[in-house]
TrEMBL record:
Pfam families: EVE. The lineage of its organism: Eukaryota, Metazoa, Chordata, Craniata, Vertebrata. Residues 1-66 are annotated as: Disordered. Keywords: Nucleus, Phosphoprotein. Residues 41-52 have a biased composition (Low complexity). It is found in: Nucleus. This is Thymocyte nuclear protein 1. Its main location: nucleus. Specifically binds 5-hydroxymethylcytosine (5hmC), suggesting that it acts as a specific reader of 5hmC.
Length: 242
């Protein structure tokens, strides 16, 4: 994840057990508290009407053509609350990112192969949602962009780092990271519970969130988004919370 490997590397994952890189490390080990809680029910007034209204707007813009299933945006999970892993606080909130020089940092500590592959697929200038994970109320708080494509994650070679990997070799590094830069806060906090309500409605009626990885692969701290998924979730910032 994006911070000095000490503080942020772990906090970014959505899993409780994997605290490393602010975003990705935790992914496999533990699921987001709320994401895995089956008891969490979506708020009343599911999203069918919202999906239909959004669809009408999109169709008027695109002539009704369906977009191809291509991942061009991302969702990055990071832990906004303090949690120690091997003596290192893995907390890294969007406010921490904003406090970095040039509001930019590296996204280190990812130790899940699928998440690493997603990192390697990221392209310069692509945008991602900054998602607060493993906290009282998980959800999307802002937008960042990729400002440097994948390169070796230095924390894999640092024996003092919680994400040290003794099996990785400098001539053939196992793990990668990217640099991200703060773009803006979302106009409002978009909670997981609200996104889940839309996901459940779309799963039933074929809306854009029907296959969203936030629910089908919830433990991954780095997740790809289609253009439709990104656009729909972004449209939620204009709506009043339920």
């Amino acid at each position: 994840m994006p911070w000095p490997s000490r503080k942020r590397d772990k906090g970014a994952v959505s899993d409780k057990k994997e605290p490393d890189a602010k975003i990705a490390k935790t992914e496999e080990e533990s699921p987001d508290k709320e994401e895995e809680e089956k008891s969490t029910k979506p708020p009343a007034g599911s999203s069918k009407s919202g999906w239909k209204n959004w669809k009408k707007t999109k169709e008027s813009d695109t002539g009704g053509e369906e977009s191809k299933t291509t991942y061009c945006h991302w969702l990055l999970k990071s832990e906004p609350e303090s949690r120690l892993e091997k003596g290192v606080d893995v907390k890294f909130s969007i406010d921490d990112l904003k406090a970095e020089p040039n509001q930019t940092t590296f996204w280190d500590g990812v130790r899940n192969y699928q998440a690493r592959n997603f990192l390697r697929a990221m392209k310069l200038g692509q945008q991602a949602f900054f998602y607060h994970s493993n906290c009282k109320e998980p959800g999307i708080v802002g937008i960042v962009k990729i400002v440097k494509e994948a390169y070796p994650d230095h924390t894999q070679f640092d024996q003092k780092d919680p994400h040290y990997d003794s099996s990785s070799r400098k001539e053939n590094p196992k793990w990668s990271m990217v640099d991200v830069q703060f773009v803006r806060m979302t106009k409002r906090f978009i909670p997981l519970s609200e996104i889940k309500a839309h996901y459940l409605a779309h799963k039933a009626d074929g809306g854009p969130l029907k296959n969203m990885m936030l629910f089908t692969r919830q433990r991954l701290s780095i997740q790809p988004l289609t253009q439709e998924e990104f656009d729909f979730v972004l449209s939620l910032e204009e709506e009043k919370p339920h």
